[in-house]
Amino acid sequence: MGDIIFEPEPGARGNGDELRVPKPALYMAAAVAVFTVGLAVAASQFGVGADRERPSAVLVERSLHFRDAADHGITVIDASTNTVAAELPPNGNGFLRGALRALTRSRRAAGAGDAVPFRLVRYTDGRLVLLDPVTQQHVTITSFGPTQIESFDRLLQTPPTTDVGTRAR
Length: 169
Prior knowledge:
Layout: H1 23-46, E1 58-68, E2 74-78, E3 83-88, H2 94-109, E4 118-123, E5 128-132, E6 137-140, H3 146-157
Antiparallel strand pairs: 1-2, 1-4, 2-3, 4-5, 5-6
């Protein structure tokens, strides 16, 4: 038998030279990392670069309860008059359902029930916002386009129909 010969891996350097990164490049990379972390801390602590909604006056507001209907639709109840504001059919209003699901999930996580109504608010600057006074969370409807704005605007403008207490269940 003969001697076993080990060949170097393809692409391996046979001369034993190591690849070395120049120290100035390492210092620059460390400086960029420290600068980036510093900017992130400044933004979170001092609001630098934060995009916040500016407070403006309320133009119109409506307090609403949202109840599941027997046909899997949604019954919207005006909380101030206890009347039905709208009956939303099943298999529709996906965005409204999603927004309510998210806000309701937060309420459940906070251990709160559905006794306090949601607030649908149109501000003088044009924003339309669905607010949860219990968790202080909100969904800015105007961020999601004209179709969503229109569906929520209808809830804001719809006159109440019948008293919930006199409706047959």
